[in-house]
Amino acid sequence: MRRFLRPGHDPVRERLKRDLFQFNKTVEHGFPHQPSALGYSPFLRLMAIGTRSGAIKLYGAPGVEFMGLHEENNTVMQIHFIPDQCQLVTLLDDNSLHLWSLKQHSGASELREEHRFTLKGPPGSPPSATQITAVLPHSSREVLYLGTESGNIFVVELPSFRVLEERTITSEAVLQRVPEDYCNRRSCELVEALREHPKNPDQILIGYSRGLIVLWDLQNNKATHHFLGSQQLENLYWQRDGSKFISCHYDGSYTQWPVSSDNRQPEPLENLVPYGPFPCKAISKIYWQTTKNGLPYIIFQGGMPRASYGDRHSISVVHGSQQTAFDFTSRVIDFFIIFSSEPAAEFDDPSAMVVLAEEELVVIDLKTAGWPAVHPPYLASLHCSAITCSHHVSNIPLKLWERIISAGSKQNVHYSNMPWPIDGGTNIAPDPPQRDLLLTGHEDGTVRFWDASGVCLHLLYKLSTVRVFLTDADPNDNMNTLGEDEWPPLRKVGTFDPYSDDPRLGIQKIYLCKYSGYLAVAGTAGQVLVMELNDEDAEHVVDHAEADLLQDQEGYRWKGHEKLKTRDGPVRFEAGFQPFVLVQCQPPAVVTSLALHSEWKLVAFGTSHGFGLFDHQQKRLVFVKCTLHPSDQLALEGPLSRVKSLKKSLRQSFRRIRRSRVSSRKRRGRSGNVSEVQEANAKFDQDALQEMELAPVQRKIEARSAEDSFTGFVRTLYFADTFLRDSSRHCPSLWAGTNGGTVYAFCLRVPPAERRMDEPVRAEQAKEIQLMHRAPVVGILVLDGRSTPLPEPLEVAHDLSKSPDMQGSHQLLVVSEEQFKVFTLPKVSSKLKLKLTALEGCRVRKVTVANFGSCKTDDYSENDLAVLTNLGDIQIISLPFLKLQIRYPCIRKEDVSGIASCVFTKYGQGFYLISPSEFERFSLSTKWLVEPRCVVDVPEVTSNNHVHNKPGMENAARKSRSSADCGEDERKSGRLMEHALLNDEKVLKEIQSTLEGGR
Amino acid sequence: EFRRFSLERSKPGKFEEFYGLLQHVHKIPNVDVLVGYTDIHGDLLPINNDDNYHKAVSTANPLLRIFIQRKEDADYSAFGTDTMTRKKNVLSNVLRPDNHKKKPHIVISMPQDFRPVSSIIDVDILPETHRRVRLYKYGTDKPLGFYIRDGSSVRVTPHGLEKVPGIFISRLVPGGLAQSTGLLAVNDEVLEVNGIEVSGKSLDQVTDMMIANSRNLIITVRPANQRNNVVRNSRTSGSSGQSTESSLPNSTPNILANFLQGEEESDEEDIIIEDSGEPQQIPKAAPTSESLESLTQTELLHESTQNGFLPSSEMNLNHSAGSISMEYEVQDPDHKSLEEDGTIITL
To answer: Which parts of the chain are WD repeats (chain A) (predicted)?
Structure first.
């Protein structure tokens, strides 16, 4: 029989596997790592973000997103949408131009690279001659103007990228009519800005870096106006009517210039240094927006006084007497203003400002008084404080979901009510099948609740545990308070704040019971908090207990951090999850495992020293168990004594750098033999480097022993109602697995509900299993008589799960980093095993039971183990027979933080961090697949659905063009994201209706 | 003297009883003797504990041939794999050892008193340039004691000579198991770990594989020094595992007969402590008779086709008592330390 059940030999099973498992990386959540460019199309109402790794991401209405990747993986320098087209052009730092377009295929739009092009100069010319500095897509949609470092402007045809040499605007031609003395003082230098006249497409404004600005007539191929700027130019902006333009400069000034037909060489109307009179930093970009009431909005980036505010990343908005300098916590990459793009409109009437900073996206509502921020539905800054752990809960009951949302909405009152202004495209993905929560724990002691049901990961609610503790940080230290007559009028915006006041607050483990609303979180300094959801603000005392995990073992000294000090007396908590019990482990080592049983009202926690069980109903510690090996000094002393905290070492190295700078300056001043010292230093460095190269990396081969370090480290805790003592009576039990391959099982006696408060919960050790291979135990699971994993607490009570089979014999599955083993219960005898490390050399990093449904039939589903290995592979292993089903490479094995951050869902999806700020979402299931599906139509086509916000139709020519495009798209076949459709009739129907509705 | 008597095959009883029976039958109640038998391969194997006694009884077909020697003039070299086929006349050898012994034999001790620490195996199926070494880690407190590194070696491929990455032994710890065997040396290239090729695997992967197999590690190496390779003689025996040939010049003292034929996986013997009782090895759950049969078949298949590859399931038929007690000793300190909390009673 066994022979025939082997994987790979059973065609029926093979077919079933195809219906169950499928690997897809579906969408990236969060904020792109290292953004480098921003673009916006007022026509499509889509925003594009380019990154230093060559990715380009488009965002529109929530759920509408596209991603592309340049093959070269070079930094994206500039992004320009082709006016009134579904196309955009990117410029990379290798000077290549790429044309991307959004095309429809089987009902959904896709972003594809169409052409690439590198500008080539005449043979022998220096590379700077063709180094592109400015790109202007002309409104005719036929050509691109490319300003270069040499000062020449090349014209290329779209979409072929053919250089139209006869139309090149050379710097010589531009300089012909410039006054002699101006020319002598400065050469043209590079083209800093190119701007098309807002009313007359035949005129373009050319700004050179040394200050010269020229209005160029494309028809007659000559300069009509010369504007002789005296300051180094940064950027240009046309006023809406084309009568004036504004230039901003390196010295922090901006200048208004009139454009009239009578004066060919006009003087500036106004020259202003907004944050003068002391030297200021450059204003790198400026907008001049007209409004109905006459007062313009002047919005510019930078310009802060160099000495005192030179380190600020600011964008100032000036509107009459109102002026605010929005102060960002990270460097501003770029920004744009959303304003009325309808050509017929007389005024700009800006509605919102969208700022891409290095670490977050901030949108400011310019229509509402006070200019509040808009809560973004996507691009959440996941890493506003570093993520320390994550926890996923599938299928949240509606009631809990609503309560969390309502708690969150009370926190978001300071946000604007404005609908999300970037709303291009249509999301046609089916509604998410269920409500999923992703909880992230952060270094600053907060837990963030994300709606992870769909494509847009957005923040529902933020919980802070800081309030329970006394910390050095002054809670009244509010950065947002704005002094009355403070100048410049800075206002902090955004949520990115990577600096934690106290690393001990960091959250390490989270467990949420979705049925009862109980939440347990545990942190770096051995703190365990149990919380309850309360819809109202409340002030109460948090019950406090201590768990001494060393149990009077003498002679050990904890050299790590101290435990957190608690606040005495009642503490005020806002609506949401409010802590009512605090257990602090002693020694205050980081909590390494946590389990909560909401039905028995018990919480179990483990550290590197041992584990404990706390009754949060009676608020009483039930027992503690020390797992330490007496020789394990390292665990006793605490990791911090050996491994300095990263922050500390960073701080120290900064100090060192500063000191060395100071000292080197001094040295230079005093002695002449600096070069000698430097030489010696260089030599030393080189020697050290050589030494490193000579000593090859080698690995010690040694069997694990009981004396190894951190064998007592508790890796996993698990509650189960099973047969621990004999096969006739089952009882509650707690299981713990350690780093040294030991499994402890405790028999629990929980009093019945009516006497729950009267009798104590009792625990007694029933079993101890020592795995001889001594690998860390990473998972413990009990399978019932039908070999189904036991349900979660309260799952049966809520009728969401069949009650477990208590008739047949239960089995215990122990997953170590190296092996999977099934034992019988209650008498422990080994039944089955699967060796992983011995055969493949990989180790288990994460393991979860996942339910896989068949995409063919609704009534078939099975439970399997989803396993992530240290090589970044994902394996699916069947239950209860432990047969490898399928293996997918998922994460690069070098990406240690990605592997460490991975979290599986109960339905075969998962998340892992691809950067500090981004989760990649993947799916192993054919049935549960969350991926973006959206359509971007040229607005005319869907104008009947989208009358609001959309610019009206402009000309018939464009209309015919766009419909021709559509026809072509449908004929073209694509390869992406078609799997889900073809099987799902509902989706097909939906697409059909969308298409028909569009026509 | 010859004696013939019958035993009940299904209930052989304990070795002690059997030993007593033999002494009684031969009327030598106070003489220490060595008991040996010939197994199905014709090897002379010792009977000195319950396990190998049961094994002996179970393999008797139908007769069990037992040799008894007085302990003081026993020929220890007579025991071991292939002993019966190697020596033309074992019987005469056993009965009159002096006939063949020219010089006094060095008495080490009997297999019950020492354990194998290493062996060269599968000489007959491996190319001469390779060596498959088995390190018996269990029961010894000696560290394995070696390090591995990345490196490159030259291979002959269809495209000519190619430099390919490989894994090499980089260091032997003095006094470690690896060094004391004399079978492994610095710069030996590691080709396989417990039957699995390492090519294409990273240093970390190979490290993990070796550690996972550390209790019974079999590594196939291409020795850096190729001068000491085994010179094949035209032995016809199909039995694997024996390499104590006199032609192997300098490593003989360390090479022990691979007498544990049905190799158990001692690393798999997890230990359970029930209700604060004594630690016990976790038994294997009794499979149904049908599957047991097929299991044994697969087992045999493994043995014959994939020599050196560890069978995937446990056949603890002749576990040596020595290694069991050693495993318990490893456990001891653990329980002593845990005694304090009163939930476990130590041994």
So the answer is: 69-110, 433-451
Question: Which residues 262-281 on chain B approach chain A with CB closer than 8 angstroms?
Answer: 266-276, 279
* Residue A486 confidence (pLDDT) above 60: yes
Residue B170 inside a domain? The answer is yes
With vertex at residue A533, the alpha carbon angle to CA A531 and CA A534, rounded to the nearest 5 degrees, is: 120
- Number of residues that this document lists for chain B: 347
B263: in domain: no
CATH number, span A382-412+432-474+503-628: 2.40.128.630
Average pLDDT over residues A288-305: 92
- Amino acid, res. B130: H
Statement to judge: residues B23 and B124 lie in one domain = no
Smallest CA–CA distance, residue A312 to chain B, in Å, is: 46
* Four-residue CA torsion sign, B79, B84, B90, B95: positive
Asked if the Cβ–Cβ distance from A725 to B208 is below 8 Å, we say no
Q: Return the residue of A nearest to B205 by Cα.
A: A841
Asked if B208's CB is within 8 angstroms of A837's CB, the reply is yes
Tokens of A773: 């291979």
Closest chain A C-alpha to B274 CA, distance in angstroms: 5
Q: Of B228, B256, B279, which residue constitutes the final position of a domain?
A: B228
A6 Cβ under 8 Å from any chain B Cβ: no
Task: Give contacts of A883 with chain B, Cβ < 8 Å.
Answer: none
Restricting to A residues 871-910, those with a Cβ less than 8 Å away from any Cβ of B are 871, 893
Question: How confident is the model over B245-255, as pLDDT tens digits?
Answer: 333 333 333 33
pLDDT in tens, A118-172: 988 778 888 888 899 999 999 998 999 999 998 889 999 988 899 998 889 988 8
Testing the interface with B: which of A772, A845, A883, A894 to mutate, by most B Cβ within 10 A? A772
Strands, E, within A771-917: which ranges? 777-783, 811-816, 819-824, 830-835, 844-853, 861-869, 873-878, 884-889, 903-904, 909-915
Q: Which of A551, A772, A870 sits opposite B269 (nearest CB)?
A: A772
Specify the number of domains making up chain B. Answer: 2
Tokens of A678: 């430097």
- pLDDT tens across B95-141, in order? 444 444 444 455 555 555 556 777 888 878 888 888 899 888 766 67
Token digits for B321? 């008592």
Task: Report CA dihedral (B6, B11, B13, B19) to the nearest 10 degrees.
Answer: 20
Nearest to A778 by CA among A902, A929, A631: A902
Percent of chain A with pLDDT over 70: 84
Please indicate whether, in this complex, the C-beta atoms of A1 and B290 are within 8 angstroms of each other.
yes
Do B73 and B125 lie in a common domain?
no
Q: Does the beta carbon of B9 lie under 8 angstroms from any beta carbon of chain A?
A: no
The CA dihedral of A648, A654, A657, A660, to the nearest 10 degrees, is: -70
Domain ranges of chain A: 229-330+341-354+362-379, 382-412+432-474+503-628, 710-841, 843-933
Average pLDDT, stretch A548-575? 84
Range of the structural domain that residue B25 is part of: 15-78
Residues in chain A: 999
The dihedral through the CA atoms of A156, A158, A159, A164 has a sign that is negative
Q: Is the pLDDT of residue B191 over 80?
A: yes
Whether the CB-CB separation of A435 and A905 falls below 8 Å is answered with no
CATH code of B57's domain: 3.10.20.90
Per-residue model confidence as pLDDT tens digits over A222-254: 888 989 888 899 999 999 888 999 999 999 999
What is the value of pTM for the model shown? 0.77
**Which pLDDT score is estimated for B294?**
38
**B192 in reach of chain A (CB within 8 A):** no
Binary contact (B143, A702; C-beta < 8 A): yes
Question: Least CB-CB distance to A773: which of B148, B210, B212?
Answer: B212
> What pLDDT is stored for residue A656 in this prediction?
47
